What does this fold into?
Amino acid sequence: MAHAEAAAHGGEHEETSTGLNHRKLLMWAFLGSDCMFFGSLIATYVVYFGRSKVGPFPEDVFSIPTTSVSTFVLLMSSMSMVLAYAALNRGSIKGFRIWIASTAIMGMTFLAFQVFEFTDFANHEVHLDCVEIRTNEAAIEELTDYEKTFVDECVEGVDEFEEQHGLTPRTNLFGTTFFTLTGFHGAHVTLGVIWLLSLLFFSFTRGGVTPARSLDVDLAALYWHFVDVVWIVIFTVVYLFGVFPGI
Amino acid sequence: MTTLAIPLPKRPAHPTGVLAWLTTIDHKKIGILYGVTAFVLFITGGLEALYMRFQLAQPGQDFVSPEVFNQLFTMHATTMIFLGVMPLGAAFFNFVIPLQIGARDVAFPRLNAFSYWTFLAGAILLKLSWFLGGAPNAGWFGYAPITGSDFNPGHGIDYWAVSLQVLGIASLAAAFNFIVTIVNMRAPGMSLMRMPLFTWMTLVTSFLLVLAFPVITVALIELMFDRFFGMNFFSIGAGANPLLWQHLFWIFGHPEVYILILPAMGIVSEIIPTFSRKPLFGYPVVVLSGVIIGFMGWMVWSHHMFTVGLGPVANSVFALTTMAIAVPTGVKIFNWIGTMWNGSIDLRTPMLFAIGFVFLFIIGGLSGVMHSSAASDAQQQDTYFIVAHIHYVLFGGSIMAIAAGAYYWFPKMTGRLMDERMGKLNFWLVFMGMNISFFPMHFLGLDGMPRRIHSYDSAMGWDLWNLVSSAGAVVLAAGILVTIINMVRSAKQGEKAGADPWDGRTLEWSIPSPPPEYNFEQIPTVHGKDAFWMQKRQRVSTVPVAGASGDSHDIHLPQPSYWPLIASIGLLIGAYGLVYSATWTGIIVGAVGLATTVVSVYAWSFEPVNEPVEGAAGH
Amino acid sequence: MAEQIQTETQSDSSVHTGHPTPLTYFKVAMTLSVITAIEVGIFYIEDLGLGIIPILVVLSTAKFAMVAMFYMHLRYDAKLFTGFFVGGLVLALSIGLSVLALFKFFA
Ligand SMILES: [Cu+2]
It folds into this structure.
């Protein structure tokens, strides 16, 4: 928030009752509060898990390999963020710029993955190989529950059945809760990217980002890592648990 | 200091008149703004209640239509909770906390101004709904699915949801600010267990706020997404369970009850020792009880849902936790009585209201324990018995304590005492009016009168007590009228108060009334509880702290700023646009508002707290 | 990467003052990647059945804790910060689990 307050409170030990910086205390209180925000969204998602009346369902749309890659990118952005902070504390403004830029780029990559994923889900197509289904009894067992509801479409003369059944926030409870939860996480990431790019920009202005004011970067970093840990939870709870074939 | 390329309006250096109030970041002025605004809004909520009492005074009346009646009870409760009691509490947080902990301001003065203006924006938005197509009408807890667009077309619920989000932003910003202020800005020597009780309860309340509001934020987001974008959070046809709303609402709602009552308990814990001329009996126990209440407030929410069929196990668990939470509350009551015991009690108006609080809160607490039993609650759910209970804890509790606080700190705020004779009249009118109005509701509830009904048949046998209740409402209104007259008159021509009219115990009484802009010329050093009392009796020296001393010319205060106000105006415009987000006009208006807020937040970030003062030598 | 190893030697002394070095950060990142790989790997073992739940909970908790302790510096910082954060976290977790229990999610 206020850069200027940092100037008044620069340095390691502060003249406050606890010796801790006002803004850093505020940030940690905010993160504790944000836990309740995401906790409520995740609880909503889980409460409605498996209660959708129509498909597509998680196993129809999720691609674990794709999401694993974007998860990896976000994890690495956290490392890059902490290195940016370390570089600034070392006095290397150049190192800072490199690492903060790569953090922002990785953040944008994550967002690009999310945009791709959302559009992919919205354009989801049910695809059945009717020839295979007719000739091989076991092939039906391989289908998801949602795909099975279309088996009847494989009438005589149809070799391939293809129909668009996209997942949007309006489709079913899964769509509603999934897009809201991941959308709010994406919004947090977007805000973080804007924050990081602002820091990068102001590292080029006089006195904008300096080692003496590394607290500005520290706060952005805390926010960024928080967004990362929230994703760690979402990846496990929503994606891995959501489509694990054994459950 | 970095400067932005865009031209910014010149910062107000020494604003006067209206501009001074619009750009102020002084916690004392913000406290007064909160107090006056919330009191006006409280009166509008009272008028809404009077309409309902006129309608219910006789059986089978049609003084207001059923549609308007639904809007009245929704707006009355929403107003009293979010625009009345909460911001009246915030008025005291703002004015008193920095003074009690020996600080010159809060930790984030501009954020504080932003909290106030955003609160005002939310209030305007909610009240505007009366004139823009109808107020919300689904009750203050807005149960799904009656709030859905199928059952509730029109914009009333949209205004309700959006304005509560705006008010949430205001409350969150204020709560973060007070957490940091109390944790980080106490005068040297003021350890946690030397903090005044009001400061303690403000701290607990602030933690409740930052943890509870995100939950209602999510619930309202879900409601808004259902209404605006046709999502399915609460559409039963898609498999949704409307109990989700009830859980989310009450996970917020029960801590919210303590957000309303803990500051009141803090105020009373200041006033009773002062007017008994004794230290608070069992200070550590009172503090601990407050903390335990704040903690246990998270474990009881389903007592609002005993009749929805959660099953015997869940009902029993929540019944037990609810009964348990009465224990720390009871402990506090005994501590207040213990403080008065053998004290030399001075029955001035603040003390009268404080004793009134203790008396009425016991009644409200007892009826609360009655419906903590799931079985008996099944009889009381949604009847006037609940209405009686909530008014004993929120009017008899919160409002009585707020009135006590107003009489107590008014001299500190204005430099003048409120008139004692009118004060006594004020107390007795309010006390009698409130009991005449709310006590019969117990009988009506036990007789089976449901809450939220527009009219009733004479054959039901509810005529007498309804009439009595309505008559009590008129007495109560007369009492509030006396408050207004007394405040306005005393502010102009009240007796001069001096710094310490009550022989006070805490640091706010050690400085002049009204306090100078910088509060403390020298930051005091604290040697124990009741710091100022000790200073007066034991002649403890207040050694100035290095770096915090100096004469008043040398004190650099944060300077006024336009940005908090403009950021809040942006929120107001943006939220208004959001209500109409189904139309292009709404989207454009919303975007303009959002852009205004974003620009102001950037400008605010780059505005220094203090402009370098020309020609002034530093320390 | 070269920069990290290079700076590692410079700031070696800081280990004693309790501040992590870029090498620590790098090691943490590698551990996080390995755990994620294991998570995704386990996911394809269908025989685990419900047994996958505790395994994934433990693994992702480990990831969460590592980011919080090292990247967010909670391990080296004031306890009050940990208190603020863990307070919110534990409350969110307890209430979330209670809500699931009330919706008979575990039944
Ligand atoms: Cu409750």
Notes: Residues 17-545+556-561 of chain B form a domain with the Cytochrome C Oxidase; Chain A fold (CATH 1.20.210.10).
